[in-house]
Amino acid sequence: MLGFTLVDYTALIFFVVAWLGYHGAVELTGAGQKSLNRIMNQYRFRWMEQLVVRENRIVDTTIMASLMNGTAFFASTSLIAIGGVLALLRSADEVLPIFGELPFGPPMTRLAWEVKVIGLAIIFVYAFFKFAWSYRLFNYMAIIVGSVPILKDGNREEALAVARQAAAMNVVAGKHFNRGQRAFFFSLAYLGWFIGAYLFIAATAAVLFVMWRRQFISDAHDAALGHEHD
């Protein structure tokens, strides 16, 4: 009824499994402890440990503003992407003849086009919620940072405890930001489905490989660990 072939369903299942599998590997398994995200989480805690000894915290507020601005940018971009995707629903009559001439598979039905477009919209809506929540969490972190006392002889435990709370909130905000970016990356793979199921599979595999490489064997990973890289 939808006009999808067995290869289409296989590609979609592979896409979902790749997304969930990558999420589990990076965030829920022991292997994820070696990922770039987890390494940077350690620096988030080190940042807060250094914050307690600084009376002038202009550097810290500048960093926090940068984090919030970047998150707000991606949230705004998600809204623009949602609007663009919804506009595609009205362009089926113009687009379907073009895709029908491509030699990558059988002609796409109108219903199949609409299902694919709605799926892409769902991905961007998910990304928006992740970025918007991350932005809110960075705001919460800023409030906690504002309550971190300057380290003195009599308040060491209190100062470090509040600093660790700020770092923990920073980690959670970063986690949701990473999930939003992950949705953006996988949306690029999803675009391959509009051309053909085989390209969808290849694009998903390519995105999965690139993301895995950046997390575990990239020069950024080596730099975060303090390893020299030629």
Query: Cα-atom Rg, whole angstroms?
Result: 22 Å
State the helical fraction.
over 70%
Strand content range? under 5%
Q: Give a count of the beta strands, DSSP E runs of length 2 or more.
A: 0
Please mark out the parts with pLDDT under 50 across 5 or more consecutive residues, or reply none: none
H and E order: HHHHHHHH
Structural shape: elongated
Instruction: Return the structural class.
Output: mainly alpha
Number of helices: 8
The major pleated sheet works out as: none
The end-to-end distance, rounded to whole angstroms, is 55 Å
Let me know the average pLDDT.
89
Oligomer: single chain
Concise account of the structure shown:
The chain has 230 residues and is an all-alpha fold. The protein contains eight helices and no strands. It has helices spanning 6-27, 36-51, 58-88, 92-100, 110-146, 156-191, 197-216, 219-225.
